[in-house]
Amino acid sequence: MRTVFLLLVLANVAFFAWWRFLAPPEAGLDPRPLERQIEPDKLRIVAPAELARAAQAKPKPPPDPEPVRAAEPQIIACLEWGSFAPSDAPRAEKVLDPLDLGSRLARRQVEEAANWWVHMPPQGSRLAAQRKAAELRALGISEYFIIQDEGPYRWSLSLGVFRTEAAAEEHLAALRRRGVRTARVTQREFQVPKVWLRIASVDAALDSRLKEIAVAFPGSELRECR
Predict the structure, then answer these.
(1) Is residue 128 within 8 Å of residue 218, measured between CB atoms?
(2) 3-state class of 105 per DSSP?
(3) Integer Cα distance of 120 and 143 in angstroms
(4) How confident is the model at residue 32 (pLDDT cuts 50, 70, 90)?
(5) Residue 64 pLDDT
(6) Which candidate, 155, 187, 156, places its Cα nearest to that of 169?
(7) CA torsion sign, 140 to 143 to 148 to 151?
(8) Which of 162, 207, 212, 216 lies deepest, with the highest CB count within 10 Å?
(9) 80: pLDDT confidence band, cut at 50, 70 and 90?
């Protein structure tokens, strides 16, 4: 038994000597690692506290830029367009149809003082007034009515009432261009029903479009809602 133990010891010593001095180097192992170091004088051991301070001092990357948002249309105000005689309001509403205003469009009816009247003088009788009305229809003018009430203007033909003299004169000029010769402007106080078309949530683009449309209706105006 003792002999076997001595033989095992000798075998281990022999194997160690062979592995240490005679065995060929394994592939992938560097036989002279210390000779192949890169700038070993610059290597140093860093303490954990120093490593933590270096991590804190590292500059943070700039934050991601916020996505560019499309500019929202600026809401100007609620606007109203008018005023129109009740019989003329549907025509004004019709030209607004392409704008697809939906619930943003509403109608407001009021009583307004109109101090300037465009009319044809009294014709003397119902028959004469009806003949003058036929002449107007022949010129393509349908917006008139015959005054039948007792008074100095009985059997005259009303062609429109306006809040300002300028609007009345503009309407008279338009009638003359269509062939009306005897109409005139008279200052007279009236209380007449009028319609304003109210448009809510108007942005700059819609405001510009409404102004273009209003030009086609002489005497009308576009203003902030009241």
Answers:
(1) no
(2) strand
(3) 13
(4) low
(5) 67
(6) 187
(7) negative
(8) 162
(9) very high
d(C-alpha 124, C-alpha 185), whole Å: 19
Tokens of 86: 């009740």
Question: Which burial class, exposed, middle or buried, applies to 14 when counting CB atoms under 10 A from its CB (0-12, 13-18, 19+)?
Answer: exposed
∠ CA 221-142-100, nearest 5°, is 45
Residue type, 150: E
Contact in structure between 90 and 195 (CB atoms under 8 Å): no
Query: CA–CA distance from 21 to each of 15, 114, 152, 222 (Å)?
Result: 10, 124, 142, 107
Cβ-Cβ contacts under 8 Å for 185 (sequence gap 6 or more)? 116, 117, 118, 165, 168, 169, 172
Kindly give, in sequence order, each residue whose CB lies less than 8 Å from that of residue 92, ignoring residues fewer than 6 positions away. 81, 82, 84, 197, 217, 220
CA angle 170, 173, 177 (to 5 degrees): 140
Instruction: Give per-residue pLDDT as tens, 175-184.
Output: 999 999 999 9
Residue 160 has φ and ψ, to the nearest 5°, of 140, 150
Q: Which residue has the tokens 């902030």?
A: 224
Distance CA 111, CA 11 (A): 126
What's the CA gap between 167 and 91, in Å, rounded? 19
pLDDT band at 157 (very low <50, low <70, confident <90, very high): very high
